[in-house]
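[#protein-structures] MJ: dropping Endonuclease III here for a structure pass
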Amino acid sequence: MGTPLETRADQAEEIVDRLEDAYPDSTISLRYSNRLELLIAVILSAQCTDERVNEETKQLFETYDGPEDYANAPQEELAEALNSITYYNSKAEYIRDSCETILEEHDGEVPDTMAELTELSGVGRKTANVVLQHGHDIVEGIVVDTHVQRLSRRLGLTEEERPERIETDLMEIVPESDWQQFTHLCIDHGRATCTARNPDCADCVLADICPSEKGDSEVDLASGEPW
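AK: finished. structure tokens for Endonuclease III:
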């Protein structure tokens, strides 16, 4: 079992330093060219891979241009355009409703506050954080997706299970200047090495400080289940 550093703040700082060395070009993988496309891509990415979303939005963004197009698109038509995305019917409805709100309440512009964003259909705190960070250059939180949730628990940064509570814990120990990059680093490492079902602990740059190291630890702290 790896041995975490003395404090969670020290642990978090060491994790960021090592992952920055391992993934120097880490950044958002969703493709978009404006704030509305970013919002739509993030809505679509819930429980769906970024790779799949990028494949689908390539044609979507060529077909629809601006909130008016999405708001006025028939539900069946928009859903059909998204039919390879998980929960595409619901997501089509979220997009249409959000674009109606953007037109009616925000002069056609994607809002730039957490409160206004989370009032949009299908937009929770995670989605709002992504839009604020990459659409408006506003960083007021940490995006907690499944990779961040898994890694932060495995690495002993939190014992919380809900994303909102995990975010609160992380914001107390991750330097504010690293809030945005922390997510990207966790996503890259989660995809490459610290996968959900079969992490490659033997080739992990964090193994010596990870209390969940497979083979030495008996328990995966992400799930609480034995390895």
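MJ: nice. The chain has a mean pLDDT of 97.
AK: one more thing. Residues 8-26+143-226 form a domain with the Endonuclease Iii, domain 2 fold (CATH 1.10.1670.10).
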